[in-house]
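4.2 Preliminary Data

To establish feasibility before requesting continued support, the project team ran the inverse folding procedure on a target of 250 residues. The structure was first converted into the token representation described in Section 3, and no sequence information of any kind was made available to the design step. The complete token record follows.
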């Protein structure tokens, strides 16, 4: 469940205005919202790694709803999707591309399908570096097979933002379990008769889990303190964020 961006913006404005500490424009808020969402999203990976150590040491709370490692993994589920890649036959590319609208953050399990064979193979494909890919595929002893295919990543000369995969041997279909970045949040508005900003339903909510609402507000306030040059806001928000982090990991 996403976090409503209007709720976050109005809360931030309320806290700032309550103490008459300035105002943050929609453009400034959108920039801060995007930055904070990205920071929270990126924090899941080192946090998950740290919490997994507790699993390995049998010190993790495994009670339902209280396993913090599972909670962190749960927050990533909305961004995990199995995606079909399309083979681009252009001379400058010759590889498998993701042609959707989202931005891929990480590649997970890669499945190469060879459906013109009997039996059909749906093979887990090992991802390797370009140098290793070149060495392995050129050797007769280590050349990949349909049962054990090999792939590497590259960049498309047509669209450098696209993920490009080269697979050996060439499959008929390619499906990849991908982790996508959250969409950039945006508070859209119309201008009222008094020149005020009015929330528009074309806005884009935060894609993070609803449990992150407090973290979003606190961390946006921290950056607001920098914009309006109020160190007390920065200090208060930083202390609150630090205490929340300690409580989660203790």
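Position-by-position output of the design step:
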């Amino acid at each position: 469940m996403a976090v409503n961006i209007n709720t976050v913006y109005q809360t931030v404005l309320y806290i700032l205005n309550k103490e008459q500490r300035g105002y943050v424009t929609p453009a400034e808020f959108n920039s801060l919202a995007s930055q904070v969402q990205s920071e929270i999203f990126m924090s899941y990976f080192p946090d998950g790694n740290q919490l997994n150590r507790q699993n390995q040491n049998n010190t993790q709370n495994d009670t339902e709803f209280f396993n913090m490692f599972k909670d962190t993994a749960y927050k990533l589920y909305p961004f995990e999707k199995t995606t079909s890649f399309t083979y681009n036959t252009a001379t400058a590319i010759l590889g498998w591309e993701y042609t959707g609208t989202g931005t891929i953050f990480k590649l997970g399990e890669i499945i190469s399908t060879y459906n013109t064979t009997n039996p059909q193979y749906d093979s887990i494909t090992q991802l390797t570096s370009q140098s290793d890919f070149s060495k392995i595929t050129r050797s007769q002893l280590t050349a990949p097979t349909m049962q054990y295919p090999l792939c590497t990543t590259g960049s498309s000369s047509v669209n450098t933002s696209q993920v490009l995969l080269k697979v050996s041997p060439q499959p008929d279909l390619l499906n990849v379990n991908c982790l996508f970045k959250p969409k950039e949040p945006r508070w859209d508005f119309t201008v009222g008769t008094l020149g005020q900003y009015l929330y528009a339903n074309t806005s884009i909510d935060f894609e993070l889990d609803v449990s992150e609402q407090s973290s979003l507000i606190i961390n946006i306030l921290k950056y607001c303190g920098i914009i309006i040059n109020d160190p007390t806001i920065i200090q208060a928000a930083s202390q609150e964020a630090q205490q929340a982090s300690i409580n989660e990991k203790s």
